[in-house]
């Protein structure tokens, strides 16, 4: 564990920060960089998500700078645990990856900031200050990625087909719809590539199930249950 003092700017006390990264050289480099920045005090560092949670429990830092891909417990799970158990600590992700599979799970887990490791010292300080002020600490690259994602059209949702009413089979409902469209039994047979006798059987069955007595009632029934559209309406 390492600690480095940093002077706060103005009257605001220095932000107490924990650095978590599984690569020792990277972690020590970040700690060294932060030690040179105003308004930052590094109070601890760790090598994986389990250490991150333990350090937060012990030190109650203001912010954790969190890598994502780490052994034992990755950054997303560590972020989720920290935000659930220690809501006074904010998480800013500092990672190599800016793809959707890394970005969105981290934000969903509760990270308030997201930077890539090419961020400069000023950008890190700004992200820390932003999350402590209640804002999102996102790099310009991540902001653009979010805007691109939000501007993509939503995938079309195919509605679930409704079950035909009164226990009608799909074919009986289809026949009922064709009756409502004004087709004769012979025309329905040609449309469905079946015999006229088969059409008559379907009609007898659907009349029995629905209690309909004639084709006029069948037309009204089909309109009422959405099996056919009245003339002049547009099929959806």
Description:
- It contains ten helices and six strands.
- The chain folds into two domains: 137 residues, 3-Layer(aba) Sandwich (Rossmann fold); 60 residues, Orthogonal Bundle (Arc Repressor Mutant, subunit A), CATH 1.10.10.10.
- The chain has 236 residues and is α/β, with parallel strands linked by helices.
- The chain has a six-stranded parallel sheet with strand order 2-1-3-4-5-6, sandwiched between helices.
- The longest helix has 15 residues.
- Strand 3, helix 3 and strand 4 form a beta-alpha-beta unit.
Question: Helical segment tally?
Answer: 10
Mean pLDDT: 86
CATH class of the largest domain: Alpha Beta
Number of structural domains = 2
Radius of gyration over alpha carbons?
A: 32 Å
Supply the CATH architecture of the largest domain.
3-Layer(aba) Sandwich
Low-confidence stretches: 1-10
Strand count = 6
Mass-distribution shape: rod-shaped
CATH topology of the largest domain: Rossmann fold
Portion of residues in beta strands equals 5-15%
> Could you state the CATH homologous superfamily of the largest domain?
Response regulator
Give the strand order of the largest sheet, numbering strands 1, 2, ... along the chain.
Answer: 2-1-3-4-5-6
Q: What sequence of helices (H) and strands (E) makes up the elements?
A: EHEHEHEHEHEHHHHH
Helix content: 40-55%
- What structural class is derived from the secondary structure elements? alpha/beta
State the end-to-end distance: 64 Å
The biggest sheet, with number of strands, parallel, antiparallel or mixed sense and barrel status, is: 6 strands, parallel
């Amino acid at each position: 564990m390492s600690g480095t003092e940093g002077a706060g700017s103005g009257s605001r006390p220095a932000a107490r920060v924990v650095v978590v990264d599984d690569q020792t050289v990277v972690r020590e480099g970040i700690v060294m960089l932060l030690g040179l920045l105003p308004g930052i005090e590094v109070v601890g560092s760790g090598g994986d998500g389990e250490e991150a949670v333990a350090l937060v429990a012990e030190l109650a830092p203001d912010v954790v700078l969190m890598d994502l891909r780490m052994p034992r417990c990755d950054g997303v799970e560590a972020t989720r645990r920290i935000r659930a158990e220690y809501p006074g600590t904010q998480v800013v992700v500092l990672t190599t990856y800016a793809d959707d599979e890394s970005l969105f799970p981290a934000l969903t887990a509760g990270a308030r900031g997201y930077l890539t490791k090419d961020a400069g010292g000023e950008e890190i300080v700004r992200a820390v200050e932003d999350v402590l002020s209640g804002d999102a600490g996102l790099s310009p690259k991540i902001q653009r990625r979010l805007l691109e994602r939000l501007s993509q059209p939503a995938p079309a949702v195919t509605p679930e087909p409704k079950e035909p009413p009164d226990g009608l089979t799909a074919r009986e409902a289809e026949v009922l719809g064709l009756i409502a469209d004004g087709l004769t039994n012979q025309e329905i047979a040609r449309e469905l590539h079946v015999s006229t006798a088969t059409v008559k059987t379907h009609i007898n069955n659907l009349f029995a199930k629905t209690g309909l007595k004639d084709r006029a009632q069948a037309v009204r029934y089909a309109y009422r249950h959405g099996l056919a559209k009245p003339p002049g309406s547009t099929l959806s």
